[in-house]
Amino acid sequence: MSMEYFSGLTESAEIVNSLGMLTESMRITFAAVMIMAMISFAIFMIGMYINLKKWGLGSEGYGLKPSNGSILTFPKTLAYQMSAKGHGHGQNIFVTLILDALLQRRALKRSPGRWLMHIAIFGGWIALCIMSVAMFVVEIIHMVGIHIISPEVFREMLSFPNDVFSYILLFGIIVAIFRRLFVTKARESTIAFDSVLLIGLTIIVVTGFIADGIRNGTFWGMGMQSDLAPPASLFHVVISLFFCIAYIPFSKYMHMIAGPLTLMANKGGE
């Protein structure tokens, strides 16, 4: 949901650019976001390196000795498992990715309620991430002088789907909280990591709605002054970058990457 910040920046930039200048405060704000983004991505890559090293400690085949933990071991083993020689159900990789990874049919068969929660959180998160990246790219292209599409026009194009997927994500979070509080099995299996993820996601979603509400004057803005929109959006973006990018390899969110890889290695199936 980080597109709200860049959308707010676009509106201000349109006004300032009409005067032929860009304020120093906007330069600092945008530079700060860029730095935070690079730091978050660097932490993410370090975490992925650690995970690949850990996954590379396993055996490359039945009865074989564990490997030396090279980060190349896991990709090589995965490629072999996905080949015709590897074991598994033999299901087409595209069927596996669509039905098992994307639509999560296994979770649906186990528990429709749990599936609804997962698909709402996963679908909303991924869609908002894609739109945020797209908005960011358009902003950068526009700032360097390539005017393919106006950031303001692109922002308006994304406004409705952004709202839709934001509420889908919020719905998934509400279902998750309800299950953790009132479904005995889910409550008893909840650990600290689960609570951290839910609290973090809730903060990100709520701050995104508040930042957008302040900027547009909707009820989520709670009547706060419009000049609070930039800092509110900046706060939302910073925690989104660190929680939704940097924290992934060190949290249970890693299953978003490990799960599909496992399914591909096993060639999906029922």
Overall shape: it is globular
Strand content: under 5%
Low-confidence stretches: 1-27
How many domains in all? Answer: 1
Q: Find the count of extended strands (DSSP E, 2+ residues).
A: 0
The largest sheet, given as strand count, sense and whether it forms a barrel, is:
none
Which terms summarize this structure?
single chain; 270 residues; Fumarate Reductase Cytochrome B subunit; 11 helices; transmembrane helix; NarG-like_sf; transmembrane; membrane
Task: Characterize the structure shown.
By secondary structure, the chain is mostly helical. It has one domain: Fumarate Reductase Cytochrome B subunit. It is built from eleven helices and no strands. The chain has helices spanning 3-18, 24-55, 73-82, 93-102, 105-110, 112-143, 151-182, 184-189, 192-216, 229-246, 255-265. Helix 7 packs antiparallel against helix 9 and helix 9 (192-216) packs antiparallel against helix 10 (229-246). The longest helix has 32 residues, at 24-55. The radius of gyration is 21 Å and the shape is globular. It starts with a helix and ends in a 5-residue tail after the last helix. The model is unreliable at 1-27 (pLDDT under 50).
